[in-house]
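Every protein is a chain of amino acids, and every chain bends into a shape of its own. The protein below has been through that process, and both of its lines are reproduced in full.
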Amino acid sequence: MNRKIYQAAFPAALIVAMAAFLSAIFFADATPSFAASGKKKPAVTARTSAVDYTEAKIKELQGALKITGAQEGLWNNLTLVMRENAKDMDAITKDYGEKTKTMNAVERMKFHSQITEAHLNQQKKLIPPFEALYASLSDDQKKTTDTIFRTGKHGKQRIK
């Protein structure tokens, strides 16, 4: 019994920790060398919006998974949640660059906490439609899905 709880709790805790770590890295504004030197940071290239990134991933996944007509409704439910999550994340990070110019360290940590919490809530919304779709997949589709989630790749090549 305890082993089953551990098997479920450990991956969930790992995902939350990874999301927090990755959001801290992704949204970091200055490296210690820039902060310590007082030099101006070079111009930052524009970030891709979460909506644009999600649309590209939806297209890639649909091609890799070869969604059938019978699975289309479940797929649409999943992509609806993915798109809503992306819009929510874009709203949170909308003025990130401007906001961070005046944030102190505590405010920055609170902002990262807000993003991490949003990621967690989005995962919770995403799991039910994903479970429903996954249950409808063929064995080959499940194998492809498992490979993508485990490695980020479809077979030996990245999804394109």
Remarks:
- The beta strands are 153-154, 157-158.
- Residues 2-158 form one domain.
